[in-house]
DNA sequence: TGGTAATGAGCAA
DNA sequence: TGCTCCTTACCAC
């Protein structure tokens, strides 16, 4: 899936383009017809993300809660204030950039295109639209439901007010591998398979290290590094975890994908730091874990 | 045309 | 631990 940074981009997009307006809500696919009816015609008052969960609050106290899962994506379009249509969500190609700037602005907004048959939700204002496909979760929540859900989510590195303490204590009290804890949304919210692998590499940490044996200064480093990496992800619309000196000879950002990561998806390639053919892939908790057996000890 | 993998997570066993 | 759901795109045949 889109990791946490993508969801924060979605929230930003909604905040800019839809919040403050009355929205028409529908479910072209039909599977969310009842939910859409609950907010159809209501005014959007706030959009935010917590980890990989997206929340759109309406003035009738109901909240649209979306989790994109592995395949979900939002597509946006509208008049000039929207820029041209773009999408945020499940990338289909490695390193794909989300919401690329359009080459030309749309001349005249005449309304949204016909929805794909798989469109779960379409939200429409007078000057733009947002389509959701493939989400694993899409529902309407009461305020209590939102509170209940958020209580189960750990601190989000992309939340500037977040207190990382719960993440530190989660690490101290479990012998589960640190590589598994980083993926646990109850311990820390928003990290996915790429940020997991890349931040562990940058910390020089063996993913199998029992979390309670990771020094406090290292868990603090992991938090701070994910704050930095994910913030970069929000700004770029793409995950780039390599330091500039490890992207030598790459000037165009369109060439970044092949130099954007240290270990994710790089089995059989030379490690950018130690130069060894030491990057391996294994299964951890049902997900593919990539790491360098020389750099991460 | 069909098999598969993909930045996820809930659930049964 | 493994199955399931959601959807798309790429690849091999």
What attributes does this structure have?
DNA-binding, five-stranded antiparallel beta sheet, alpha+beta, 7 helices, 25% helix, 297 residues, four-stranded antiparallel beta sheet
Describe it for me?
With 297 residues, the protein is of the alpha+beta class. Helix content is 25%, strand content 20%. It has helices spanning 4-17, 33-39, 143-151, 165-172, 178-181, 193-202, 216-236, and strands at residues 24-26, 44-50, 53-58, 63-67, 73-78, 86-89, 119-124, 128-133, 137-141, 279-284, 287-292. The protein has a 5-stranded antiparallel β-sheet with strand order 1-7-8-5-6. A 4-stranded antiparallel β-sheet has the order 2-3-4-9, sandwiched between helices. Strands 10-11 form a two-stranded antiparallel ribbon. Helix 1 (4-17) crosses helix 7, helix 4 packs across helix 7 and helix 6 crosses helix 7. The mean pLDDT is 92. The chain binds a DNA duplex (13 and 13 nucleotides) through helix 6.
Number of strands: 11
What is the chain-wise order of helices and strands?
HEHEEEEEEEEHHHHHEE
Assembly of the depicted chains: single chain
Fraction of residues in β-strands = 15-25%
- Envelope shape: globular
Distance between the termini: 28 Å
What portion of residues is helical? 10-25%
Biggest sheet: strands side by side, in what order?
A: 1-7-8-5-6
Let me know the largest β-sheet. Answer: 5 strands, antiparallel
What are the low-pLDDT stretches, counting only 5+ consecutive residues below 50? Answer: none
Average pLDDT, rounded to a whole number, is 92
DSSP helical segment count: 7
Structural class: alpha+beta
How big is the Rg? 20 Å
């Amino acid at each position: 899936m889109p990791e946490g940074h993508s969801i924060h981009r979605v929230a930003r997009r909604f905040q800019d383009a839809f919040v403050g307006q009355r929205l028409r809500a529908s479910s072209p696919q039909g599977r969310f017809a009842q939910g859409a009816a609950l907010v159809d015609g209501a005014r959007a008052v706030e959009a935010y993300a917590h980890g990989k969960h997206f929340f759109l609050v309406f003035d009738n106290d109901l909240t649209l809660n979306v989790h994109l899962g592995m395949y979900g994506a939002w597509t946006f379009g509208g008049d000039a204030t929207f820029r041209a249509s773009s999408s945020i969500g499940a990338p289909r190609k490695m390193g794909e950039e989300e919401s690329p700037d359009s080459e030309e602005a749309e001349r005249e907004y005449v309304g949204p295109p016909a929805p794909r048959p798989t469109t779960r939700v379409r939200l429409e204002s007078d000057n733009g639209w947002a389509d959701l496909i493939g989400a694993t979760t899409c529902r309407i929540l009461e305020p209590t439901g939102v509170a209940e859900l958020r209580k189960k989510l750990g601190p989000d590195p992309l939340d500037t007010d977040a207190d990382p303490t719960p993440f530190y204590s989660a690490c101290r009290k479990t012998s589960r591998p640190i590589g598994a804890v980083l993926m646990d949304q109850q311990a820390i919210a928003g990290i996915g398979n790429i940020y997991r692998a890349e931040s562990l590499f940058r910390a020089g940490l063996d993913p199998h290290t029992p979390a309670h044996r990771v020094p406090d200064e290292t868990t603090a480093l992991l938090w701070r590094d994910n704050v930095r990496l994910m913030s970069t992800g929000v700004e770029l619309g793409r995950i780039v975890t390599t330091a500039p000196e490890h992207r030598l000879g790459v000037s165009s950002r369109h060439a970044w994908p092949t130099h954007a990561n240290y270990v994710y998806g790089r089995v059989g390639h030379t490690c950018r730091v130690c130069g060894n053919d030491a990057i391996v892939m294994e299964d951890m908790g049902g997900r593919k874990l990539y790491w360098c057996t020389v750099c991460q000890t």
